[in-house]
Specification:
Strands 1, 2, 3, 4 and 5 form a 5-stranded antiparallel sheet that branches. The protein has a two-stranded parallel ribbon with strand order 6-7. β6, α1 and β7 form a beta-alpha-beta unit. It has one domain. Helices cover about 10% and strands about 30% of the residues. It is mainly beta.
Length: about 140
């Protein structure tokens, strides 16, 4: 069971599972399936990015990536890759207001994956990059 919410919102509210982003795997070949889902949450009245979460379960264990979607505006190019999606390890990132746009398309950290099989974070990174682009379609 999964529960999440967007608190009171005077604007447009979004709370949606991302189409085609649900998967069932056995990445560590231990005969215990992992389930992975991605979804978006937002309260906005503009084209700002929404919050995005990737949640992977294996049995009772839960692994999560939390961040923002990438919403291309103007001439902005999508430059988020599996190697630079983790804000915690983004070279030169200082968490200042001036650098807020660097958070678009990236997740906060991989701390929830500590102790997990290496295949889990590798898979999570690839799923994040695949589904983080948000469009108006």
């Amino acid at each position: 069971m999964l529960g999440d919410k967007e608190k009171t919102c005077p604007f447009d509210i979004t709370c949606e599972f991302i189409k085609d982003a649900v998967s069932i795997t056995d990445l560590d070949a231990n005969r215990l399936a992992e389930t992975t889902i991605l979804y978006r949450l937002a309260c906005r009245s503009d084209v700002s990015p929404s919050a995005m979460k990737l949640i992977m379960h294996e049995g009772e264990k839960k692994y999560v990536l939390r961040g923002l979607t990438w919403y291309g505006m103007g001439d902005a190019k999508f430059e988020v890759t599996e190697n630079n999606a983790n804000l915690e390890k983004l070279p030169g990132y200082k968490e200042t207001e001036d650098e807020f746009m660097k958070t678009f398309g990236r997740y906060e950290s991989e701390k929830d994956f500590e102790g997990a099989p290496a295949e889990f974070i590798s898979y999570a990174r690839s799923r994040w990059v695949r589904f983080v682009k948000e469009s108006t379609e």
